[in-house]
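User: My advisor, Dr. K., asked me to get a structural model of this assembly before our group meeting. I'm new to this, so sorry if the format is off. These are the inputs:
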Amino acid sequence: MNSLRRRSRALWAGLTLLLILLLAACYPDNPQSTFGVSGPVAQSQLNLFFWIFWAAVFVFVVVGGILMYISIQYRRRPGDADPEQIHGNTPLEIGWTIAPALVLVVIAVPTVLTVFDNLNSPDPDALTIDVVGHQWWFEFKYPHPDGESMVVTANELHVPVGEVVNVNLDSKDVLHSFWIPKIAGKVDLVPGNKNFMWIQADEAGEYLGQCAEFCGEAHALMKFRVVAEPREDFDAWLAGEAAAAEEPVDPLAQQGKALFEGSKAQCWSCHAVTGSDKSRGQTGPNLTHVWSRSHIAAGVIENNQENLRQWLEDPQSIKQGTIMYRDAKIYTDPENKLTDADVAALVAYLQTLD
Amino acid sequence: MTTLAIPIPRRPVHPTGVWGWVTTIDHKRIGILYGVTAFIMFITGGIEALYMRVQLARPEQDLVSPEVFNQLFTMHATTMIFLAIMPMGAAFFNYVIPLQIGARDVAFPRLNAFSYWTFLGGALILKLSWFLGGAPNAGWFGYAPITGIQYNPGHGIDFWIMSLQVLGIASLAAAFNFIVTIINMRAPGMSLMRMPLFTWMTLVTSFLLVLAFPVITVALIELMFDRFFGMNFFVPAKGANPLLWQHLFWIFGHPEVYILILPAMGIISEVIPTFSRKPLFGYPVVVLSGVVIGFMGWMVWSHHMFTVGLGPVANSVFALTTMAIAVPTGVKIFNWMGTMWKGSIEFNTSMLFALGFIWLFIIGGLSGVMHSSAASDAQQQDTYFIVAHIHYVLFGGSIMALLCGVYYWFPKITGRMMNETLGKINFWLVFISMNITFFPMHFIGLDGMPRRIYTYDPDMGWNMWNMVATVGSFALAFSILVFIINAVQSARKGEKASGDPWDGRTLEWSIPSPPPEYNFAQIPTVHGIDAHWIQKREGVPAVPVAGGSDDDGHDIHLPQPSYWPFLASLGLFVGGYGLIYFQSWIGIAFASAGAMLTMISVYAWSFEPVNDPEEEH
Amino acid sequence: MAEAAAAHHGEHEETTTGLNHRKLLMWAFLGSDCMFFGSLIATYVVYQGKSKVGPFPEDVFSIPITSVSTFVLLMSSMSMVLAYAALTRGNIKVFRVWLASTAIMGMTFLGFQVFEFRDFANYKVELECAHLEPEKLTEFEKTFVDRCTEGVDEFKEQHGLTPRTNLFGTTFFTLTGFHGAHVTLGVIWLLSILFHSFRGGVRPETNLDVDLAALYWHFVDVVWIVIFTVVYLFGVFPGI
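Assistant: The format is fine. Below is the predicted structure of the whole assembly, which you can bring to the meeting.
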């Protein structure tokens, strides 16, 4: 009996340890942790999670405890006769049908309330951003300060801190999902279906987002950043984004621009640069202010001269499957292959787009 | 092989060796074929999983390319669900159901053989895709439009479609067979409410199969037509809505989840009473909860779609129905505990697996309730938290129960006991390494790791737990190896088993181990739940009724072996391949040849007597 | 005799419910087939009105013609009932007549379907520009009104409906095509029984074979009634 009690005590200790591990395992500091959240949407989802989690722990401990007790108490001992052949107990069975139903009511009510809160924007007139998924990058469209056109950018979402931001979601090709774990749970981007969510970041800073619905070869590398900044910084940023690109002055950059808009590199056919007469492409990310972004290739590598060069030279080595590598003549047709000088010129041009 | 078909002069008479197995229509041998094949498939699916775990053990590894990784997770899931767990369940249906209901075979023995061979054909179409230009790569639920020809021009998806279609035919044929067998071939006195729980759950599962598979068949036909003939079912540019695929898939897919778990619950409901030496607590309630689960399984499919934008009303409704399904599931667990209450519990390997099932299924069930909360599920959907959940219910649930079933029925099937020492080592290895593998996935999921990514950044905080999971997965593989060693050794040299080694409660334990070809020399009469227990304890004699014979079973006319089921399946297999390559003449030739072979075989089959006394001896 | 025993094994078996195994199998199969057609019909309904280009249902459907073929198929069900009744009475000759007429009506229905498919594939927009009555034009036809320029009396242009044309074509041909395949299978089955009867294989005591075929035939018929209502009638009279 004694050893048994010791064993069961060890088991309980183990379970407790497991629980502690479980709680410690989810570090709020991790960049995509759903715990160290910022903003009402993620906060409500986290509150709901904890509410259900503790209900689940309660159920687990009670049911597991009884199961453990039964297993130990009624183990077969030598010389046991047949136990009494009990076929059931109606009140007991009704009881344990109702009990879980009650636990479920406890979690059902906050669930439904949160579902409605999270999908209905508290401020429909607030800033509205269109998010469009592409294989494998995110396109963001802001209303232009002039009130007519759209300001288009990619992979770096700027939002004013502490404000409701409405987000319309759509996709150009396959399914994607828009997810910023610290700000809000995901909503899918479904081609042809206009989806909606709202977000709000309560602390200024940078947040990571990632595509969460399988979308093909480079699904793992379809990321983006959210920069939450004070309203005035945001307005300044948006004004900057809305401005047309400046004409390059540096000769190398001028050469790069010519190449960009020329028939050899044909960058213009997929990429747009506002202010350029030729670069109006819609297939790839808008590059009007690409140099102002902290990362390139959908949040995969830092944006610097060396990385830009490498990206242009061999995008496949950074992001396997990338559409540019698959479709652009500079990679598919040896005659159009870029020389080192070409790449240097293009990089110089891209560096003027800030 | 086809050349064999043409000059068949007469049906096989008592064939032996390989031909014996190919032409067999004995439900017991077919059950063994299902079991062995499914286990081999289980190992291939496991190898695919190990590849993925090695790739993910550390950040930024490049053991496999992203494309191959996508193929790996698609194949792993498709294999485990359709080629391992489902047919392992079918193996037990085949072997055990006729024995439990006191029948000499299933209602349609040749259809049964056809089911098996068709399943094998479908399995081969899927697995051989690795060697024929690439496996499918769009995930096991193949969400449109990434399965469309525009985004997926290779043949991988075609293999996937064709394989699932052929497997669907196999599953449907088997399900029809078991519905008829269970409804129509019970021994005298075995009313529905006296049927063993495993039989009950098989019946519910069969109904789910019959009603759910046509839905996926239609979805796959639509996808196939899009890919082959340029139709528009899932082409957004033509106005199609990709969510149609998701709805059709999950209207099938959620009942499918119960197709995977209800047989497991049935096995557990047999094992726990046997080793507690008590009848199942609240038998009618357990039966009813199984039926209710099967029924409610049709009303929850959109909980797989909480993030696709169905709106708050739909999300709330499906959250509530999903939570509601926890009630009958909970009831089952409580009733199993009630069965053990005041029992005399023997902790042998089979019972350990049954208890392991309950523990792991509680965890999987609770994380399932977490997902049912649509709002917080937005943080969990498509992350490793979901991966953890599905493995707790499918590995911790289905596989644990199937292993439990193997340890339980092994003596009946082989006539030898499995080694208990190795068995217990096996259990603890599986149980512990399973938790090491899958529990950390909860953490990395909540830490924001999406599923289906082939690489991750080292700064995300996912490194340690990924490594732990990988280590666990190898321990798990080792534990399966221990199982194989135990099964092979015990089958060859194990201690001889009596007909009733566990002091069993149901009819399969009333006959010798292994059972004679005709199962029951005399069809028993059933006087209550746990028919064999009543026979033993209350001394009620099993009164012989129709079809009696002397003890050798000389006068029992059994269905005879046949070539046709095998050939009909072969036709489907060949024809399926042909359809995949229908754009070439060779493909068309194969498709036509396959169709012809199937048609001829089915025709010949329908004119062949089930048993032909003139040719019997 | 072995052969006779062959096809009719099972009828002498004792079963728990008293229902024959094969009959139970047939019911299970039909239940399954309900889900099959249910899914196809659901797809059709979900995509109703979602096509981006014409032609649309009201352009191509001809309710009178399809009503005739529907009537033929309904009558075939009646003829099937009469065939079965004749068989149970033991009147093989009458049985053969009704069975053959059932098969022929089935083939007639298929003929209508082939005709209809061809007709849809060759659909032409035809406008009598000289005296246009815009309120009588369909939505699709209205998009061509501006092609009636000065001096054009008649506008005619091929706009065939194929499975590739639009969502309507895709869902319509798939749904009705699978129904047609079911009818074809049924006709083959009926003809097999007919030939078998000439070899003495069909006798009153083995009427289950015919019963099963009849069950299948009626099912296919009922499915058509649903398709006719949902696809054709609702397609042309969307107000219903």
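One thing worth pointing out at the meeting: Chain A has ten helices and twelve strands.

User: Perfect, thanks a lot.
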